[in-house]
């Protein structure tokens, strides 16, 4: 739990920085370098506003109302009205860790010196993070283009003493939260309201939180796979380095290497060296090819998400060196939406792959007549064993497959056709959060079932890494010696998977 101070310096963040602030409440500060960048961009905005030049969102309305010129004396009201009108979110609130990630990402983006806000705006975000004032943000309402407008508007309202927030364990008005934390509400100036809401920070917040969880889940799935290979007395030949080097796919080679590490020094594999089986099912034999493809997909997603950590995604953008204010479309969420959907599809394959091994562990197998009983049940018939655990995994995978349908292939035009193609990336992100939770439960069921199968292989010992994994399962869940309620066992192992208890093996 790293609580080292995170300094916003106008440069790229690291995924680990976001996790430290969002999940572990690491404090945040603003560097002098960032302050200078912010001030340089703000000087350009002040000049534009004073001259009354027609520039989108600064001296005009928004979206399809961009043709409406706003008088000088109404520029401040324009920014406050923007937040109020755009705070139209619905649904259950976002989690506190997602909101904290959003705040940190927003502050870092504004500090890169292309947004034109005052230092006070960024400092207010930093102060809220350090005081642990968490805006209450309805989770639905963003179409993932022109920024995550509705969610960010709810966030920004708290900066000006409006909206709702969590503080000291209680939900209260934004004004009351600021007062209790001895902070003053902001009075926004030209461009600042637009800069606060015109970014991809909700999509990116969920992306950077889930990619680390997904990577730990993949490594855990490989551990569960190795346990099942040993439990089902699978061959180790398909993991030979020469096979995978000959194909050249990076993820495939990495997964094969991990499996070899987990399976090394196995007594079980020696016990069936001369068995009659020629080949194993694909979910054993082709695990490097399938899980390796998931690895490659996660690498692509991490690359996209990391790039966004150095980005500025509001509009228009200020370039102080040239004194230019340029209107573009960095707020469009398509790069993130596509990666989030890719991540969901990859994890859906991982879950489906795991469930097929769970099914295989249930038996019966003609080559295992003297080994494990049907459904891994001691005294089968009287006991049903893990029969319904496999049903549960099948039900989870069915839901996962539905959630894996990409949201980013859809678009519903908004703003009277001005925003005629949107990313729907926030829908991609919300689906992914649920999908990861369900996939963790599927892998937990495989860990539970494969550990039971290994009990029937005793006194033979599995590979060294599998022995470690088996011990960690048994620290939480005992062998099934007669039927009992399995839901608590699955929940314990799902928590362990979520916490990364098997990801380091």
Task: Give an account of the 3D structure.
The protein is built from 19 helices and nine strands. With 505 residues, the chain is mostly helical. The strands form four sheets. The chain has a three-stranded antiparallel sheet. Helix 3 crosses helix 6, helix 9 packs across helix 11 and helix 15 runs parallel beside helix 17. It is elongated, with a radius of gyration of 27 Å.
List the helices and strands and how they pair.
Layout: E1 6-8, H1 15-24, E2 28-30, H2 32-51, H3 75-86, E3 90-93, H4 96-110, H5 119-131, E4 134-135, E5 138-140, H6 149-159, E6 164-167, E7 170-173, H7 174-180, H8 192-197, H9 201-231, H10 241-247, H11 250-263, H12 267-271, H13 282-285, H14 287-308, E8 317-319, E9 324-326, H15 334-361, H16 387-403, H17 425-457, H18 464-476, H19 487-498
Helix pairs in contact: 1-4, 3-6, 4-5, 4-9, 9-11, 9-14, 9-15, 9-17, 9-18, 11-14, 14-15, 15-16, 15-17, 16-17, 17-19
């Amino acid at each position: 739990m790293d609580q080292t101070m995170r300094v916003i310096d106008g440069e790229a963040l690291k995924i680990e920085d976001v996790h430290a602030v969002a999940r572990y409440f690491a404090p945040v500060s603003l560097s002098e370098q960032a302050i200078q960048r912010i001030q340089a961009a703000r000087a350009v905005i002040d000049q534009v506003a004073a001259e009354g030049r027609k520039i989108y969102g600064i001296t005009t309305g928004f979206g399809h109302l961009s043709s409406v010129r706003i008088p000088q004396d109404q520029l401040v009201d324009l920014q406050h009205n923007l937040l109020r009108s755009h705070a139209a979110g619905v649904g259950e609130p976002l989690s506190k860790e997602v909101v904290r990630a959003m705040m940190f990402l927003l502050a870092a983006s504004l500090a890169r010196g292309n947004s034109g806000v005052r230092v006070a705006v960024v400092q207010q975000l930093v102060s809220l993070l350090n005081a642990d004032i968490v805006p209450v943000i309805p989770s639905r309402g963003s179409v993932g283009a022109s920024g995550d407008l509705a969610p960010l508007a709810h966030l920004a309202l708290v900066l000006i003493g409006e909206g709702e927030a969590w503080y000291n364990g209680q939900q209260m008005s934004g004004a009351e939260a600021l007062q209790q934390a001895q902070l003053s509400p902001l009075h926004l100036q030209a461009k600042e309201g637009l800069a606060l809401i015109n970014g991809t920070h909700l999509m990116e917040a969920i992306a950077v939180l889930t990619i680390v969880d997904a990577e730990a889940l993949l490594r855990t799935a490989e551990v569960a796979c190795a346990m099942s290979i040993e439990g089902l007395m699978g061959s180790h030949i398909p993991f030979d380095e020469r096979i995978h080097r000959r194909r050249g796919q990076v993820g495939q080679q990495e997964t094969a290497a991990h499996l070899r590490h987990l399976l090394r020094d196995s007594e079980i594999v020696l016990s069936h060296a001369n068995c009659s089986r020629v080949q194993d099912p694909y979910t054993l034999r082709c695990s490097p090819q399938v899980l390796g493809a998931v690895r490659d997909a996660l690498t692509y997603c991490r690359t996209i998400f990391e790039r966004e950590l150095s980005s500025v995604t509001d509009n228009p953008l200020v370039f102080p060196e040239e004194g230019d204010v340029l209107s573009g479309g960095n707020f469009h969420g398509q790069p993130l939406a596509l990666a989030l959907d890719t991540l969901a599809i990859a994890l859906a394959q991982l879950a489906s792959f795991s469930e097929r091994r769970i099914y295989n562990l249930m038996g019966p197998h003609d080559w295992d007549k003297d080994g494990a009983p049907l459904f891994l049940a001691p005294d089968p018939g009287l006991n049903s064993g893990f029969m319904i655990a496999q049903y549960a995994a099948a039900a989870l995978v069915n839901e996962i497959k539905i959630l894996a349908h990409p949201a980013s292939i859809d678009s519903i035009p908004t703003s009277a056709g001005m925003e005629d193609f949107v990313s729907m990336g926030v829908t991609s992100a919300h689906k992914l959060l649920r999908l990861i939770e369900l996939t963790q439960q599927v892998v937990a069921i495989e860990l539970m079932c494969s550990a039971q199968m290994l009990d029937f292989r005793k006194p033979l010992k599995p590979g060294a890494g599998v022995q470690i994994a088996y011990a960690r399962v048994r620290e939480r869940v005992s062998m099934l010696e007669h039927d009992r309620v399995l839901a608590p066992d699955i929940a314990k192992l799902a928590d362990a998977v979520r916490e990364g208890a098997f990801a380091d093996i």
